[in-house]
Amino acid sequence: MRIRIEEASAHAGAEVEIRGWLYHKRSSGSIHFLLVRDGSGVIQAVMAKQEVSPSLFAAAADLTQESSLLVRGTVREDSRAPGGHELTVRDLQVVGLADPYPITPKEHGVEFLMDHRHLWLRSRRQHALMRIRAEVIRAATEFLDRHGYLRMDAPILTPAAVEGTTTLFETPYFDLGNAFLTQSGQLYNEAAASAFGRVYCFGPTFRAEKSKTRRHLTEFWMLEPEAAFMELDEYMEVAEAMICAVVGQVLDRRRLDLQEVERNLAALEAVQPPFPRLSYDEALNRLHAAGKPLPWGEDLGGDEETVISSAFQRPVFVHRYPAKCKAFYMQPDRDRPDVVLSADLLAPEGYGEIIGGGQRIHDLQLLQQRLREHHLPEHVYQWYLDLRRYGSVPHCGFGLGIERTVAWIAGIEHVREAIPFPRLMNRLYP
RNA sequence: UCCGCGGUAGCUCAACGGUAGAGCGUCCGGCUGUUAACCGGAGGGUUGUAGGUUCGAAUCCUACCCGCGGAGCCA
Questions:
Q1: Strand B–CB A211 distance below 7 A
Q2: Residue range A118-418, CATH number
């Protein structure tokens, strides 16, 4: 019977076939230990010289790391085996003999591993990270599906900037001039929210910023919910519930993977509602008390975020930023027009911002005024302004950065390991 | 773009003005329970590039290239 390695314990005593690749090999002359992986797990296959033909035994001795093979044998419980079960080999068939494999079971630098990202993905640690990523995405989208949000994706090729500030990737587009790769689906989400009430989009977004930090990619995946008839406080409740659902589901279903990457599980188990909600002004007071004063009106940088977030065991919202720090579409606070109804969520342990969002301007005249203040061409935003002409309502939305969320939940240093093929300022290969 | 660190064998690193080395991987040999197995042997180098100082440069100086970390910006 053909099985996957993750099912091996259910087939103890049975004759099975495993199709996979040679992960590693040890031998003591008359007995080979072949570590075979198939994507679902790793199992030790044991081949004794006496129990197979001499030609098969010799062929196994010549197997190279990552050679693909079919192994047939009996599953046996054995405390000496990594994983608790091993396979007594009866027959083995080589599908493809691998060339000498560049990633050896020793230390390698990040640069070398990134050059071999297409092969690095075969390692245990990367398997754990990719499974955690998949679970984060599944948990977040399932949460939104459960709460009545319709997935309605936004275009990737767009005619203009969503926010005039950040740099965009540009590409020729037939006779219509240049198109830009999207930096956010938000504007389209707002249109969709007026059509369906609650929506979200999920896909890659692009920022042509020359950022070289552990938190930045030029291509990253963002999950962006948007809801009509929603104001700031309710948005924070939704974001909080979603993050708790995501962390809880990863803890529940990907615990072994978290252990593989040596994540401190207690820190994740502390992620429970309610999250602290700090106004920008309160954040400044904390920075002042911590001896890192920041003048009012300045945006929080990486160091400031670390000071704020490390004071708490759980993610923390910072809301009501100065208007000049934020994008043109942010709704001003009616009691204090110099601040806007934004709220960013900072992950603990120094991971920084994983969510940015807030309440959008729903008043036509105010939005037009903001476009002028930001020197944005109004004619490009006519369809966006229409949303304020035809049944405008208070509405909120936010963007969850998938790679930053995965990096935080998995406890890894750099977002580049949180995506299969990272795109960085200096990396477009493989 | 700015600041800091770095580039030596396939990989990870040592040698810091006086003959360029180790571990791992590779290849050959040995070993019937290995756990990044172990033991013996072999092969492997224009020390990022170009110039300079010196009797002598991987080492000191200059320029450039590339990489890493951080800042700004953001998710």
A1: yes
A2: 3.30.930.10
